């Protein structure tokens, strides 16, 4: 599986293209770029480490349907994480500092940062944020901050593992490396495979085209898609069986693998709205949620 390639230059270039076709994206594209550059900058301080799994163990876990990074297998350096949370917090505060005014107290308390890290890692499964309560910050906002602050630790650990794993056919709606939900996907035309990208560790994996990734139904009578008039290449695939949907970008030829899916996600909110109006729930995470 060819993994995503993103850096500041690629994101800057792509963001400019999205902005040219929709000026209304200005604020959110800037936010994404600011967040990414902090993740990259401070991410360089994450210490190198040897992979915690060897080749045989990697394929064994994939076959078993077990994630490659269990919650207790992610190495989080608290000092680096705290710096990441501080700078990302500043960016998020940009417009309204009130929701994050307690952040400083949290960051001054090593024990609390560790507790929140554990709560985040343990609770991603149930989408339950109760471990985030009692911190003085809205659990949803704190969860999002933890998500973008911990992501670079996952990027680093996932990138060595995904190279050694066979991720071409993993028919599931959660990331085979870290267990998180995807952000969205695209259609690889050469073999008709759908490629999903993890919203947390960024790993890409392939699932069959005619299958709902969330409930895994292949009943074609239950699967359909919608698109905006005049743009068939961007679709929301709806599943009648579980009432969830996933956005898939099609077309784009060879260059489609270069797509920056978080940007594509931000640029296709109209599809989210259209699917929600029809009563479908988003099966993926968004960039900022
Ligand atoms: Zn992942
Ligand atoms: Zn389904």
Structure commentary:
The protein is of the alpha/beta class. The protein has 2 domains: 44-164, no CATH class; 182-282, no CATH class. 41% of the residues lie in helices and 14% in strands. It is built from 9 helices and 7 strands. The protein has helices at residues 8-21, 26-43, 55-64, 78-93, 103-107, 110-123, 139-164, 261-266, 269-277; strands at 182-188, 193-198, 204-207, 223-228, 231-239, 244-249, 281-282. Strands 1, 2, 3, 4, 5, 6 and 7 form a 7-stranded mixed β-sheet that branches. α2 (26-43) packs antiparallel against α4 (78-93), α2 (26-43) packs across α7 and α4 (78-93) packs across α7. The relative contact order is 0.13. The model has no long low-confidence stretch (mean pLDDT 93). Bound molecules: zinc ion (ZN) (2 copies). Residues 158, 175, 177-178, 180, 198, 200-201, 203 line the site of one zinc ion.
Largest sheet: 7 strands, mixed
Structural class computed from helices and strand pairing? alpha/beta
Assembly type:
single chain
Task: List the ligand species.
Answer: zinc ion
- Amount of helix: 40-55%
Number of helices: 9
| Alpha carbon gap, first and last residue | 27 Å
Q: How many distinct domains?
A: 2
Count of individual beta strands: 7
The best one-word shape is: globular
Query: Which stretches are poorly predicted, pLDDT < 50 over at least 5 residues?
Result: none
Element string (H = helix, E = strand): HHHHHHHEEEEEEHHE
Radius of gyration: 19 Å
Mean pLDDT: 93
Strand content: 5-15%
GO molecular function: ferric iron binding
Pfam families: FdhE_central
Organism: Candidatus Solincola sediminis
InterPro entries: FdhE-like_sf (IPR024064), FdhE_central (IPR056797), Formate_DH_accessory (IPR006452)
């Amino acid at each position: 599986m060819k993994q995503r390639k993103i850096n500041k230059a690629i994101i800057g270039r792509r963001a400019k293209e999205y902005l040219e076709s929709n000026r209304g994206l200005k604020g959110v594209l800037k936010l994404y770029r600011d967040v990414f550059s902090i993740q990259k900058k401070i991410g360089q301080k994450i210490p190198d480490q040897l992979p915690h799994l060897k080749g045989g163990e990697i394929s064994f876990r994939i076959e078993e349907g077990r994630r490659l990074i269990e919650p207790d297998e992610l190495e989080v350096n608290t000092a680096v994480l705290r710096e990441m949370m501080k700078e990302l917090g500043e960016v998020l505060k940009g417009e309204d500092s009130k929701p994050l005014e307690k952040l400083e107290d949290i960051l001054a308390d090593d024990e609390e940062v560790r507790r929140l890290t554990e709560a985040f890692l343990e609770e991603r499964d149930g989408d339950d944020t109760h471990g985030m309560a009692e911190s003085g910050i809205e659990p949803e906002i704190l969860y999002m901050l933890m998500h973008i602050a911990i992501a670079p630790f996952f990027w680093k650990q996932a990138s060595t593992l995904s190279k050694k794993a066979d991720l071409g056919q993993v028919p599931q709606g959660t990331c085979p490396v870290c267990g998180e939900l995807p952000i969205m996907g695209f259609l690889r035309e050469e073999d008709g495979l759908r490629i999903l990208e993890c919203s947390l560790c960024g790993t890409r994996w392939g699932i069959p085209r005619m299958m709902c990734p969330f409930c895994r139904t292949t009943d074609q009578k239950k699967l359909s898609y919608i698109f905006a008039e005049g743009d068939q290449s961007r679709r929301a695939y709806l599943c009648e069986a579980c009432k969830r949907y996933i956005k898939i970008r099609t077309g784009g030829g060879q260059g489609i693998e270069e797509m920056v899916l978080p940007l594509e996600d931000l640029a296709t909110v109209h599809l989210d709205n259209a699917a929600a109006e029809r009563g479908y729930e988003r099966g993926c995470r968004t960039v900022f949620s």
